[in-house]
Design a protein that fits this description.
By secondary structure, this protein is of the alpha+beta class. The protein has a single domain, classed as Alpha-Beta Plaits (2-Layer Sandwich), CATH 3.30.70. Helix content is 29%, strand content 39%. The protein contains 3 helices and 7 strands; from the N terminus they run E-H-E-E-H-E-E-H-E-E. Strands 2-3-1-5-4 form a 5-stranded antiparallel beta sheet. The longest helix is centred in the middle third of the chain and has 18 residues. The protein is elongated. The two termini are 32 Å apart.
């Protein structure tokens, strides 16, 4: 089952390779691709990690459930404590981490969009000829 997550505020030095290395080490599943997008004006990167399969182990399932629960709470207007992935430490000993959020896969976005469209079916009309019904 495909699953995607997002790091919304990664430092500008964050690369696809570094994200791939860290997420691979977590054994959450098989990563399909990683997209790193520079956010102009915020001087940070937004990172999307897309999985083609998700592990069935307890740690992976718990993390996924936390992200899904947070997404549901946010959709309802509630406040959440973001899930964190700690990937290193600073000179002062404090953790270096990414705040991670669920991100809908392209198919989930299509499904949500189509769900909002109701029962309407697209069609083409030429005068009195109707194609697609």
């Amino acid at each position: 089952m495909a699953f995607s997550m997002m790091i919304s505020n990664a430092p500008v030095y964050t690369t696809m390779e570094s994200v791939l290395e860290i997420f691979t080490s977590l054994n959450f599943g098989i990563i399909d691709k990683v997209d790193v997008v520079f956010v102009e004006g915020r001087n940070c990167n937004k990172v999307f990690v897309h999985y083609s399969t998700w592990d069935t182990g307890e740690c992976a399932q718990s993390f996924k459930q936390r992200l899904l629960d947070n997404a549901h709470i946010q959709e309802g207007g509630g406040n959440i404590t973001p899930a964190k992935i700690i990937y290193g430490s600073n000179r002062d000993g404090s953790d270096r981490y990414w705040q991670v959020y669920h991100c809908k896969t392209p198919q989930e976005r299509v499904n949500a969009y189509m769900g909002n469209k109701g029962a309407f079916k697209a069609r083409v009309e030429f005068s009195s000829i109707i194609i697609g019904e």
